[in-house]
Amino acid sequence: MKPTNTQDPNYFHKVVDCQWACPAHTDVPRYIRMIAQGRFSDAYMVNRESNIFPGILGRVCDRPCEPACRRIRVEDKAVAICRLKRVAADHRDDISDRLPKAPSKKNGHKIALIGAGCASLAVANDLLPLGYEVTIFEALDKTGGLMRTNIPQFRLPPETLDEEIQYILDMGVDLKLGHRINSFDDFLEQGAFDAVFVGSGAPKGKELDLPGRFETNNVHIGIEWLESVAFEHIDSIGKKVLIIGVGNTAMDCCRSSLRIGAKEVKVMARKPRGFFKASDWELEDAEEENVEIIVNHSPKAFVIENHKLVGMLFEEMEYQIDDQGKIDRGKVVREKIIHCDDVILAIGQDNAFPWIERDIGIEFDKWDCPIVDETTMMSSRAGVFFGGDAAFGPKNIIWAVAHGHEAAISIHKYCSKEDLNDRLPPGMNLASQKMGMHEWSYSNDYDTSERRLMPHVDLKERFKQLDIEVELGFTLEQTIKEVERCLNCDVQTVFTANLCIECDACIDICPVDCLTITDNDEEDKLRARLTVPAENMEQDLYVSETLPQTERVMVKDEDLCIHCSLCAERCPTGAWDMQKSTLLLPYAKDEANSNIMSKVSNN
Amino acid sequence: MTYIGKPNIVHPKAAKNSIGLSKRDYEGVVSTLCAGCGHDSITAAIIQAVFELDIQPHELGKMSGIGCSSKTPAYFVSQSHGFNSVHGRMPSVTTGANAANRDLTYIGVSGDGDSLSIGMGQFAHVIRRNLNMTYIIENNGVYGLTKGQYSASADIGSKAKKGPANQQKPIDPVSMGIALGATFVARGFSGDKEQLVPLIKAAIRHKGFGLLDIISPCVTFNDNVESTKSYSHVRKFYHQVIDTDFVPPADEIKAKYKKGEVMPIKLHDGSKIVFRKVDKQYDPTDRAGAYTYLRDSINKQEVITGLLYIDKECDDMHEIAQCSDRPLSKIPYEELVPGTGELAKIMNRFR
Amino acid sequence: MKAIFRMGIPVVGKNYFPSNIQGLPTWYEVRVTGDGYQSASNQLDIIIAMNAQTYQKDLLAVDAGGWLIYDSTWPRSKLLDRDDITVIGIPFSKLCNENFEGVRSRILMKNIAYVGALAALLKIDLDIIKELLNETFAAKKHLAASNLEAIMLGYNHVIENFACPLPLSVKPLNKTKNHVIIDGNTAAGLACVYAGATVGAWYPITPSTSLMDSFQAFCNQLRKCEKTKKNNFCIIQAEDELAAIGMVLGASWNGARAFTPTSGPGISLMSEFIGFAYYSELPAVIFDIQRAGPSTGMPTRTQQCDLMICAYASHGDTRHPLLFPSNPEECFYMTLSAFDLADELQTPIFVMSDLDIGMNDWMCPDLQWDNNYQPKRGKVLNAEQLDAMEKFYRYLDVDGDGITYRTLPGEHAKGSFFTRGSGHNKFGGYTEDSQEYQDVIDRLLVKWETARKMMPEAVIDYSKFNKTAIISYGSSDGASREALYRLKEQNKNYNYCCIKSFPFCKSAKDFINKHEKIFIVEQNRDAQMRSLLMLDLEIDPKKLISILHYNGNPIYANFIIEEVLKNEKKGVAA
Fold it and tell me: Can you name the CATH fold of C182-365?
């Protein structure tokens, strides 16, 4: 193999599994270290730079970072990254001085953002400080989009939502609430804006057209029902409720039902456990509230008696799962009626753009989604950008924010008449963490503590009102423990081959056997030959330059390195060093400055 | 040296041996020797060897004297009893320990100062007794704990980090071992575990005294370019005459050798040592020949490594003394005491 | 000597020999005493002058009124010029030359002929001598016959030529029933077998060598596995004393009872390891068969000169329990105690014998054995106990007596720990922390006080009417008792305390406190017991008066009597 190019920012970025997995690439280890030092406001600001809504995401993020966490590979539970984000938000001081400010002198460009959800707000956040004049058009009477309509208040308190949205609006947004755009053609024809960003979400819940569907009013579409509950248009439901589907929306539906009168809630899943869409933690939270999840039931018909919904007919399924974990289509073993008063359909969402004419230069694909460039977020019509669920279908908040950042860069370049594809590359800074013989400027001691559990409001208490937030947030003691679980994957093992005397000290001390000195070879052979064979192909091998004494190479399997620094500590010549890699992600403001390296900081 | 312990986590894919232990289960506390010390590599090789031999940790006795080398038994197999004795006297303690319990596996770790100076007498006599033990000399040519004086194994002209070059003749433990009648004599290098691990395994399984001289560079006092015990010097003049492989009793010899090239020797427990001669003239069962070859190599300044001599037929201390097959310390007292009647009979002889 | 013993008459034998192998003169002194005194006597009634080189010296040694017997084949009347004794010349060489073939045989038989001559002169029972010859040469009958012939040569010659018996002769008594004649090393070697010792390591040194010889001989007889014929013991002749003690420690670390016999120079060499054993708390039994020092000194002469070095052997703060047997009988029983104490206290125990006890023949009551005896192996945790424990710590004083629990290698993974002479804490870990270090060192003092309660009590003879006392120990006991008895005959009464162990027991302390003046009898120049008493019990030095005998020969009663009387006279004069 060729020596690893550690100058490529992506190499070390990939080692920081959580940051790599995060669509917005939040610098997780960095903010966790800040929390460890009690620097909650700093930790909040590190978050805000990349994900804009730390308080919101600290509660309801889909957490793609956590399944990626190295700690899972080392033991079995990820660091509670999301919980710690909320700690930063909950304990921050007044940070209004540190928020970006819009200049009083505008740059003359006017931007329209359609929808007041997270994607549009992210764009606004990035463009306002550059002097853009931003107008948001929102069909509903309130901002927040799906964050407000689809996430129940017992998970995300309205105050948190309002506060973080207000930080953006305070920079001076022209906010037009209750302003539904019915014809995009008309809107564009007016030519009032230099660029338009569509962040209108994927607002259409999927339908389940089975016999009896339209013979009753007791079958509800999940996201619409949640929105009605959020806006208090609905305040009750029957005693027995069936939820169809096991995604995160289903979890919100079942738990909301319990708070407005349901006594017996069943979530009906077509497939067995392990094939659910909902996150594990959302399932756990629902089950804690005595929601029953019934697997292997495929809905067949609504049972209507006397024009009244009395239950649902299901086919009980049996599946075969092969060695690769793939599930077959299954076969029906029997049919079964389960009685209920109401059914909520939570089987997915679709994009819906009835307001966009199909002849205005915006091309749509066969699934009726607009064709959007994945880098620039621009549609086939110049100056029209998409982001969030509106771009590539339903994802989540953190993806929407990531889209917003990219779209903001593109809009800036578009308005500046620059090539949208000529974007600043990400940068990287490496800084040694060595303080003394055995002293490092980070907590390198491996803490064997288990993941802390989120304390919840008592089961009886929480159902009294719809808006009682169930999760209480980590206590200080929990926080102190949890931050130590972070492995500091951004403190990298950096190797200098010509200093190595091949004494084996690093290999011998490595607790997870990830180092080997061996003859160089092709990757697959090398992977097989390591002290412990490197079988996780998603993780790279770090291959050194040729070693001076024996002409072999040092190979490190990045997979299980716990960044404990022992290799560097035992190295007599300093061939190994622990250096903190800081990923420098360009945002719109950096494009404006054109100098990414100005962002280097010491944290 | 580190202030933190080695984290107590194991690679999930790390191998386990036949008694269900992983290599990590054979570790000791984190070394307090200088970073990069050859001794630490030897420690790692010992861990690897006892792990691969499926030795129950508590059935291993770790013996040592005084010096950097003698600290190392604390750094491997925490679940074994250790005996860090006095300077140069590890052989006698091990002799007594083995006399009392012949069932345990004994690994003695010594250094060039501990064995070739203050402990020369005991070193010679433990060879004479053919005590069943593995005797490792971690040989770096200097005294580390007292800050870098030359030891008896320092070569003429070799120069440590400070002071003038050494002018006294070195004592070579390997040729001395062969001359004294040792039944298993090998030399290894801390920087070559591929060779070292099988050597340690073979020495452990050899029934009798297994002498292993291991060149182990001292990074702090003797790893400079003018030293003949530095990593770079040893690598430059490294000459492996015998490639040694250890094959456990149940395993077949792997067919990776060409016919006629290998020379398997079966040990008393059925395991085999497979020699592959790099130098065709070399015969590891010919004591006189081995000695001559070694002396020549010393003149050529070569560092000869491998299992250099073996005599697997020799009786060990217990066999020579016709001791019980049972560990003496485990024989019930009732079998040891002759009783009242016998004493009365004895008394009659004294009238 | 044995013949006299079998006539029921108490005897004591003292061998005076030089430190060489062949050719230099040796004396063997036999004390025949109806009172059963055990010590040497300074009175010589009969001397058999067998060596021409020492005729003159021997002549002077005989007390007035005594007899000198010599080989008159070549008379040397000039040399034998003394008129207060009777000189008896017997032509032994001539007699043997006429009757035996071969130079070597003649010389040997000449020595035997002396016995016959003596038998006639002293009226020793010839039948008993014949019985002894038959027992000794049971396997070689022809030797019994030739030896008897030699005896009869001497016997008949004397009967024919002299008036027999002499005015000084022996008369059968009944005072040796259930007694044996045995030396201390033999008794101690035998005790090692009975104590269950399996590993003995040693380096040959006079006068301890015969202890290991004895162990070896008894083991060969008593310790072979009946089925396999293999040895249930392992004796290792080490390369030096440093190795010998190392082997003992290695063996006892592994749970065997192990010992080493040595003498003063050996203790000097062993010192480093003894300190190691003290600090790492390993049992060991060390026999110090003391000889005259310093340095090589007089290897074949006796002294009690190693008290200080043994009590405090090794650098740093160390101290070790000592046992003081007074005779071979006590050598046997104290050896058993030594093994028990070593195991219970987890520390080296010294058995402080000496050349006089170890190598000379003493008359002792038969050694007894109780089949119910079980060795006390001390606080050793077995696998079952370890399994039930959460964690084992080697140096934790669980019971508050300063004695901690130990484990043996190979028993259980939970029991593993590092035996080391470097600084360690109560958990058994290496330490350089002042407090942790001191915790352990202080706890060893607690153990010392526990030891004090476990050591054998002093033997005390006390009467409240006596104001002055005599203290002795070890081989000085016999002469001291004889002196006490004979002083009593002169109406001078003293209390007596024979010390049996160090640290000193409470009874010894109380005894000392009850007296204003105490004579301490010992066989060294520097009054080592007196110093130990002062150090360990903080006794006022003024009241401790030394009686010191240190010329290398065993102390005798007259010496003590003279010294006591001299001191008492001085006291009166003052």
Answer: Rossmann fold (3.40.50)
Which CB contacts under 8 angstroms, 24+ apart, belong to A525-534? Answer: A526/A1, A526/A555, A527/A557, A530/A555, A530/A557, A531/A507, A532/A557, A532/B11, A532/B13, A532/B14, A532/B15, A533/B13, A534/A559
Distance from B198 to chain C by nearest Cα, in Å?
25
β-pairing verdict for A292-294 and A264-268: parallel
Find tokens 């024979």 and name the residue. Answer: C498
Provide the CATH number for the domain around residue B160: 3.40.50.970
User: Three-state SS across B120-161?
Assistant: HHHHHHHHHHCCCEEEEEEECCEECCCCCEECCCCCCCCCCC
Can you state the angle between helices C184-195 and C328-345, rounded to 10 degrees?
Answer: 40
CA distance linking residue B220 with residue B34, whole number of Å: 7
pLDDT digits (tens, 9 = 90+) for B8-42: 888 888 899 999 999 999 999 989 999 899 999 99
pLDDT in tens, A512-565: 999 999 999 999 999 999 999 999 999 999 999 999 999 999 999 999 999 999
Alpha carbons C65 and C85: distance in angstroms, whole number: 5
Q: Tens digits of per-residue pLDDT, B205-239?
A: 999 999 999 999 999 999 988 899 999 999 988 88
Q: Above 90 in pLDDT, residue A351?
A: no
Give the neighbours of chain C: at least 3 Cβ pairs within 8 Å.
B
Amino acid identity for residue B332 in this structure: P
Selecting from B121, B339, B350 the residue whose C-beta is nearest the C-beta of C240 gives B121
Q: Which domain holds residue B312?
A: 23-347
pLDDT at A572 exceeding the cut of 70: yes
Domains in chain B: how many in total?
1
**Which CATH fold topology does C459-573 show?**
Rossmann fold (3.40.50)
Nearest beta carbon to residue B231 from set A445, A446, A549:
A549
pLDDT band, very low/low/confident/very high, at C259 (cuts 50, 70, 90): very high
Residues of B in contact with A514 (CB under 8 A): 11
Q: In terms of pLDDT, which residue wins out, B344 or C89? A: B344
Least CB–CB distance from C199: residue in B84, B96, B351: B96
Residue of B nearest to C413 (CA): B58
Model-level pTM?
A: 0.89
- Which residues of A fall within a CB distance of 8 Å from B188? none
Do residues A118 and A401 touch, judged by C-beta distance below 8 A?
A: yes
ipTM of the complex: 0.95
Domains and CATH numbers, chain A: 17-97+433-485 (1.10.1060), 111-202+351-415 (3.50.50.60), 205-348 (3.50.50.60), 491-599 (3.30.70.20)
